[in-house]
User: What shape does this take?
Amino acid sequence: MFGRKKKSRRRSYKREVYDDEPGLNLETKGAIFTILIFVIAFLGILSIFNLAGRFGVVLNSGLSYVFGWADWVFILLLLFIGYALLRSESYRVKIISYIGFILIILSLTGVFNFFVSEYTFQEITELGNGGGALGYAIGSGLASSLGI
Assistant: This one.
């Protein structure tokens, strides 16, 4: 009744995992993604100050076209996400973090567009004013549906 328990005679078959498997594992892909985010962010910083050569001029005009005045916010958020990915043992970066990143950029560009509402799309994108092309799309959509 109160005797010893019998050991289970089941054998557990574990799949052996080798470190030499071909291809990239998840940790390596995450490290490459983190480095890529930092490279884009630092090139963006250099491009704002015209220190990245021809590529910096193209990158700065592209960021100004898309984000307008919020291009520096985009770069700061890239640095923040890169730092969080670098410190992944302390900060858990989930899909909701990326959704929040996108919502911050969308809302700021939309708000920045209200400051230059008298300009046309071409003037906003050429000068990099307001929220850029993204802000114009969001801001004009909100202004027409909700009003100012």
Q: What stands out?
A: The chain has a mean pLDDT of 83. The radius of gyration is 24 Å. The longest helix spans residues 26-48.
